[in-house]
Specification:
Shape: globular
Strand content: 5-15%
CATH class of the largest domain: Alpha Beta
Oligomer: single chain
Order of helices and strands: HHEHEHEHHEHEEHEHEHEEHH
Number of strands: 10
Radius of gyration: 21 Å
Strand order of the largest sheet: 6-5-4-7-8-9-10
CATH architecture of the largest domain: 3-Layer(aba) Sandwich
Number of helices: 12
CATH superfamily of the largest domain: NAD(P)-binding Rossmann-like Domain
Length: 308
């Protein structure tokens, strides 16, 4: 914020929760730039209602909260914060994998509840990692970073990503094959029309009953109702979610009543260094757009061709 405040006049939303729709529409209408969080829906109505808008900077690597087509039609560059959160998110994905596999949250609650009486040969038995198969759906920066971590644990690697034909880190397979062969499935795809509810009843039915699902991408990639049914019925062993639909997930969600489901409050990039770098990139994108320069990280670079 120091960089932004030094450069321009700033209207900062003061609350912890996102601005309500009415407030966002009202406050952006006379602004030249918008620095948004992933919790802000910047759709065509917001963009069309801000005739002076020249740049949108999203403090996230994903931009599914922004209508890119509407921004591009207005020749408004949209910035994101790639690369800097890759390792932090991969760390969190693997932490969830380990926690779900070894039932760590259940173990903590077991001790807190005073149920730990003695060592027991069958107490809270989990899943092994060595010589098991990890399937990674989406083999971009974060997916590859998870693969690197998995190699140290002796996991076999397969992946599904139509954009990646071959990678020496693992074997490319169809989504159906990945789900049926994997002991662990980790999701790293952007939220699009194609990936919305990609993990549904049918695809969960393809997974092993001993399999564990990890999602650190976007909540709507998984159909939560279908996931609840699969976990409740024991059709898969466990799930670890850092993202949900909706966010925040309400305390009455049935997923929170399951011992075999870990839910975190979207902590993938939540390390001190990473969040500082994300904020810095978001500020640099915003300032570049306001000054008429090319954004350092632009997700719709075609706007610069349209401007010629």
């Amino acid at each position: 914020m120091r960089l932004v405040l030094e450069t321009c006049e700033v209207d900062i939303w003061p609350e912890e929760t996102p601005p309500p729709r009415h407030d966002l529409l009202q406050r952006v209408r006379d602004k030249d730039g918008l620095l948004a969080l992933l919790t802000d829906t910047v759709d065509a109505a917001v963009i069309d209602g801000a005739p002076r808008l020249r740049v949108i900077s999203n403090c996230a690597v994903g931009v599914d909260n922004i209508d890119l087509a509407a921004a591009t039609s207005r020749r408004i560059p949209v910035g994101n914060t790639p690369d800097v959160l890759t390792d932090a998110t991969a760390d969190l994905a693997f932490a969830l994998l380990l926690a779900a596999a070894r039932r760590l949250v259940e173990g903590v609650e077991y001790v807190k509840a005073g149920r730990w009486k003695t060592w027991n040969l069958q107490l809270l038995l989990g899943a092994d990692l060595a010589d098991r198969t990890l399937g990674i759906v989406g083999f971009g920066r974060i997916g590859r970073a998870v693969a690197r971590r998995a190699q140290g644990f002796g996991l076999r690697l397969i992946y599904h990503d139509p954009a990646v034909a071959h990678d020496p880190a693992g074997s490319s397979v169809s989504l159906e094959a990945l789900l049926s062969k994997s002991d662990f499935v980790s999701l790293h795809v952007p939220l699009t029309a194609e990936t919305h509810h990609m993990i549904n009843d049918q695809n969960l039915g393809r997974m092993k009953p001993t399999a564990i699902l990890i999602n650190t991408s976007r909540g709507p990639v998984v159909d939560h109702d279908a996931l609840y049914r699969a976990l409740k019925a024991g059709r898969i062993f466990a799930a670890g979610l850092d993202v949900t639909e909706p966010e925040p997930l309400g305390p009455d969600s049935p997923l929170l009543r399951l011992d075999n489901c870990i839910v975190l409050p979207h902590l993938g990039s939540a390390s001190q260094w990473t969040r500082e770098q994300m904020a810095l990139l978001a500020a640099e994108n915003l300032i570049a757009g306001l000054e008429g320069r090319r954004l350092p990280h632009c997700v719709n670079p075609e706007v610069y061709d349209l401007s010629r």
